[in-house]
Amino acid sequence: MSVLWGVSFDATPLSGVVVEFIKVAKIFHSRGYRVHLDLGYDIKADKNSFFRPYTDEAALLPDWVRLDRVEGIDTVPGYDAAVVEAVLREVVQQGDGERWRPAVASLTGCLSDRILATWERLGVSLVVVENGTLPENIAYTQALYQAIEEYGRRHRLGRFVLWRDHDLMWQSEPSAAKYGAFPYAHTPKPRDSLFIHYAALHHEALRRTVAWAPDLRNIDVLPNTFAHRPARVDERGTAFRRDHGIPDQVPLIARFTRIIPQKRIDRDIHLLAALADRTDAHLFIAGDPAEAPAEHAALVALAEALKVGDRVVFGGRLAPHERDVGRCAGGGYSVRDLLAHADVASFMTSRDYESYGNPIGEAIASRVPYVTTRYDLYDAVYASKGFRAPVLDTRAHDLPAGVFLDEVAELLTDEGRRMRTAEHNYRLGERHLGRAQAEGLLDRLFLTPMADRTRMSVVVPVYNEAGSLPTTLEALYHQRGPEGLLERSLYEVVLVDNNSTDDTAAAVRRFAADHPDLAIHLLTEPEQGVSCARRTGMEFASTRSRGRGVRDDGRFYLVSADADCRVAPDWLWQLYTAMESGKAAIGVCDYTYAPEHFAHRPRLWEVISRTLRCRAVTFALFGGFPDGKGFAVDRDVHDAVGGIEVFYQLRDGQFVNHLSDDWDFGIKVRNSGEDIVYAPLSRVEINPRRVDHALDEVITGRAYGSDGVIVMRDIRAQRSAVDQGRDLTEAEAREAWAFSVKDFVPKNTVLPVLLSPSLLEDHGVAEFFGRSLAQRLACRVEEVKDEMRMIDFAPIHSYKTPSYRLYFEFADEIFARLRATVGEDVGHPPPLPACLRDVPPERFAEFVRYYCEDRESGEAHNYFGNGGVF
């Protein structure tokens, strides 16, 4: 049986951290894992549990969780609570580490040995670390890292550790500087290990973690998740109000949290008192009064002083939201029973204490509205996603007052508003906090290992493609080789949902359920943009392929496809064969349109087909550059150059990601010295809507922006009746060809030799240009590089200026060669910009440089257009 070892740095029998561990472990348990949990008593010293034997803690947990701890940890010489507290104080907080360095090193080695022995005894196959980056115990943290490296190498496990953080130094009481100050020089940083996949609770935590540990590559967002089902009074819970002395008809405010000063439960009591003249609401406080007896006594006294003591119920510790987590005090009731009776849930915590706010998520998932303070990460986790609630800004008011008070009163007394708010949050919560996100990530990373024979991952970014996805997936499912259908273990499909608002995700899940013999994975990418989605998919596929515990002698390929385009039946096999035989780093497909879509549009089809003929010639000579519609890259090369890079531009005062990630990536690969191969038999049919969606803009070279800004736009928009199916006029056809060829020539004939001047020595390339032109191009490339002080031409914007310059200087000769090889209908270069027409010949190259480098006007970008959509 597979064995999961969980270790919590929280050192409490039941907490939000432990509950979230149980939610994750339950998924693995359902797949046959035996689950062991170390509560961390022997890690964290401030909970007064160091080396304390377990007693009744198991009653708080599901019966499938086995409480465990590292065997023999209490025999490590010099390891006890006093030493752990002293190291935290003197090393982490005060930065005085020299005195403790030898002791910490000795403890690290001994602890690592004990951890390894325990894992070996149990046959551990998966480790889940909860809150490990909170530096309560640096010796144990370093020992855990050391044990992971040794155990992973010993058993060749791949990424067998999920390391998840709930609190980090900048999230857990930062004003007290409990863990020092950024960059936390005396704290073990997260290690970029081959055996660990990190998980942050939200994108702000991920951003801060990567800023602290910039070499960290394997990290995802795994939010606290919740089973979304409205809380309803069941048969057992009907007596809840009666058992706690709460009248049936009064509004009920629910507060379920630890009863400690940092949680600021006093605010709820003040809220109740301030609402006394508007409602007879009651307050139920669920938490263990014995954890901080002085705080409990102070709250009871406060309620009496504010004359609401008879309406405040201290209900004891309830079982968590999940019924299978166990039973606590409070008459055997759970948080879910409380929420079934509550009108509003409250979470008015300290500003710098709570990193996430589980009670808010549990209220949302139960379809109960909530009120809260604007604690440090509230906006990042909830408000930024659109959740609605009265929010107390404690920088203006420490206690409930003003508008906040009015909004809470309205929420308690207006049932319609309560229902609307709860429903809005519930639907939003299903998307952002639902179990599907966690299950999907865990399934991809741990539960469904990649087959030993899998050689390709096909990455497909998707955005509102529910209508076209079934056709796309059918084409991928029925891929063929020379002897029939491809063996489906040879490849898998990775779809990256980029914030779709339609049934895209449901369509993927339906197809996957109906076709279990093909591995289909669904990821989410919250940052909008096809570039971001493609990067996420590629990185995931690379990580997954490397995580296999098998010897990987062959090459592994990351393949890109678009959801709205149609791949040929042998598309994948032809691409795979070209990559295997040519040993190139990137394989580029052939892109086509179906002529029947343009049967009644001869002028438009002529322009498109002319462009495709030019492409066929130059791709065969130079290899071409990848297009997201279809290409493959060797995984090792992808990782070596840093993967897909997303560039940003300003549009209307806002940063937007650049659309050219595929071209940028190809430029990076070619600039690194790797080859690109053209696979003409691997065909992708382009969706004609890419031309039709804005025909006027296509004709004038503005389909994806202007002034150098190239961004994605929604091409699913309804075409106007005028443009739908119309052909071009003769004048429009000339204009469309001019922009198409002006885009094509710099990118497909000039750019390859800029990046790889040695191409000009190739026989076929030299024959295409002619010896004289090839030699002069080679000389001019070196002159331009030196003149511009360029080291390389890696990013797309770095190549534009020199490519444009060389285009103007050699246009007549290059077009002559295209006419000779493609056909006379290629014609001559389009007219020069007006500003260059009267420049004296002897100064032409000089003014071309000024024109192409003029970043202020963007004239050169507009002259060449922003990408040929043909």
From TrEMBL:
Q: Which GO terms describe its molecular function?
A: glycosyltransferase activity
Q: The Glycosyl transferase family domain covers which part of the protein?
A: 240-383
| Domain of life of the organism encoding this protein | Bacteria
**Does Cytoplasm appear among the keywords?**
no
UniProt key word Nucleus: no
**Which parts of the sequence belong to the Glycosyltransferase 2-like domain?**
457-619
Q: Which UniProt keywords apply?
A: Transferase
> Which PANTHER family does the protein's record reference?
GLYCOSYLTRANSFERASE (PTHR43685), GLYCOSYLTRANSFERASE 2-LIKE DOMAIN-CONTAINING PROTEIN (PTHR43685:SF14)
Q: What is this protein called?
A: Glycosyl transferase
Q: Which organism is it from?
A: Wenjunlia tyrosinilytica
